[in-house]
Write a structure and sequence with these properties.
Blueprint: E1 6-11, H1 16-27, E2 31-38, E3 49-53, E4 70-73, H2 79-82, H3 85-105, E5 110-114, H4 126-139, E6 145-149, E7 154-155, H5 163-175, E8 189-190, H6 191-204, E9 209-213, H7 215-222
Parallel strand pairs: 1-2, 1-4, 2-3, 4-5, 5-6, 6-9, 7-8
Helix pairs in contact: 1-6, 3-4, 6-7
Amino acid sequence: MSLQGRTALLAGATGLVGRSCLERLLEHPAYARVIVLVRRPTGINHDKLQEIRADFDALEGVSSLPAVDDVFITLGTTIKAAGSRPAFAKVDHDYVVSVAKLGKRAGARRLSLVSSIGADRTSMNFYLRVKGEAERDISDLGYECVDILRPSMLLGDRTEHRAGEAFATPILRGVSGAMIGPLRVYRPIEARDVAAAMVAGLVSDATAGVRIRTFDDIRQLAS
């Protein structure tokens, strides 16, 4: 499989991980074109970049998508920001799966998804259950390889204010070193490291199947 001249499809390019992922893709020599699905322009000018304005409620109607090789999905919100549980599920499940289906129809064979530590389709926690259901449904689409990254709290400069995270971040930074053994997967991690791991994972590892990446895997790929 050639690692040159590839086309990437990215959804979520204006978010915390998505912004870093877009930068990585534009810089990486393996990718000749980076297509982003956006509701509003990214404001970035680059020879490799192609922006497609899309209605995420009607992605089946997107007809202008060229052939793509790899799909990167960094979409995500919170129940508070979405306004309700159904609105959250629409973004973190429905939109995510719709993008994956769109990429598959465009010929993509590999996909990388940002999920969450603790994602589990059988969880009693609504947030984690939705994340787990999205993982399951994407894994069933027939991609040759799927990278699922499960970070804990993401560190970085957000465009929107999240009061809970602003309070918790310095606390978690302080106790991170004490989170050892099975608690290591809950260590907070820089969003830019997650983005770097997404790109490195698909470029460097073409092993077939579904791969789950947690804290140590993400840090290793990002290094």
